[in-house]
Structures are given as structure tokens and as C-alpha cells.
Fold this sequence. Notes:
By secondary structure, the chain is an alpha+beta fold. It contains 5 helices and 13 strands. A hairpin with a 5-residue loop joins strand 10 and strand 11 (about 125-135). The protein is rod-shaped and about 120 Å long.
Amino acid sequence: MKTILRNFLFLSLLAAPTQAAAAVLITEVMYDLEGADSGYEWIEVTNTGSVPVNIAGWRLFEQGVNHKLTPIGGATTILQPAQSAIIADKPENILARYPTLALVFDSAFTLSNDGETLMLKNAGGATVDQLTYRASLGAKGDGASLHLEGEVLRPAMPNPGIYPGELVPIVAQKEQTKGSSDALKIEGEYAAVASAPSSRAFPLLPWIVGLISVIAIGVAGALFVRIEQKEGETKSLAEEFEIVDT
């Protein structure tokens, strides 16, 4: 019985690191930025397990190469539960954009804009996680990144170092960040274009209608006066000549 328990404990200890390592996932990929990509691509990995994981000696396998992961500034290689780390081609570039990132690893890679398979390998060379992205999934040069949501990848505004996080569509975010003055300017331009044909085609219409009305009233008044004058003349003639029966 003791032998069985001893073997069980031994096997449990052997299995524990593997289970912990398996909990580290690739959770976000920025593979195609707006404009030039070089030096601005990055990958987010997250410890989704319940125990800390030491990723010292781990590799990012990409395009047939095992890329080293070097922590920036002597940072720790321990990923705490629910903690994310960023693997960057040029760490200084992503830190300039996101200065609050706590854990960044330097590496050397170039992500394909058409799609590829990424692998995260532990110090022993075993594949811990792998992820395949394609350009057809979105986030192709529009400012979005691909986020792991369950078992699928979805395009949304990048939020490196945060997983899981709110997935904000890139279009909605751009509309929210658009300046109010720009929005008013655009609305004004659209309004001007829409109203231009009617305002330019009939600028004197109210004046013309008013003038016609005045002329019509004048003519009607003149006719009325003329009729009154004729009736008056007829009445006067009738009074001047008296018809006498003979």
C-alpha cells in the first residue's frame, strides 16, 4: 500500500509541471499593423492556470525557428496565475505605446501578414500551446489585433497585457475617439452638400411668389375699381334721363 501511495505521489509531482505549463496560452496576436509592421508586431501569452509558471528557457517557434525569450530590464520569468506577458520583436516600440506593461520579453521574429502557426515551447522543447491565425479572420492592417475568445480568434482593439478583456470592435472605437469638432465638420459638410441644390436653384423663389401676389392683388384692385366706376357711370346716366310714358 505504501509503495502504491509513493508511486502515486511521485507521478503527481512529475505531472504537476506539465499541467501548469499547459495552462500558458497564446491569447493575442498583433500581426499586421496599420502602416509599416517591422518592429511593432507582438504576441501575448497568459497563464490561465492556478499556479505560477516559470517560463525561463522557453521558446517561440515561428516560421521554423525557435526564438529565444529574453525578459526586459531583468524582469522576472515567473508568470503568476492570470498574468500576461508580451513577446515583442522590438520591446522599446511596444513600451512606447503601452508604458504600463509589466512583463515584456524580447525576441526576434517577423509575423506573416497572410497567417501562420505559432508554437510556445517549454525549456524541454515540448509544445505547450500552438495557435494558427489567418488574414481572413480579420485584424489585417486596420489597427485591430486577434484575441483568443474561448476556442476562436476574434478581431478587436488591442489590449496587450490584459486577458480576458473587453473586446471592442475597431470601428466602434474609432467612432468613439473621433473628435467632436471633426464629427461636426463632417456633418456640416454633408448637410451643405445635401442642401446645396435646393438653395442654389431657387434662391429668389419667395421673392418671386411675393411679387406675383402683390401684382395679382394690384390687378384685382384695379379691376374692382374699374367695375365700380362703370357701375357709377351707368347709374348716373339712368338718373339724368327720365323715361316718360306717353
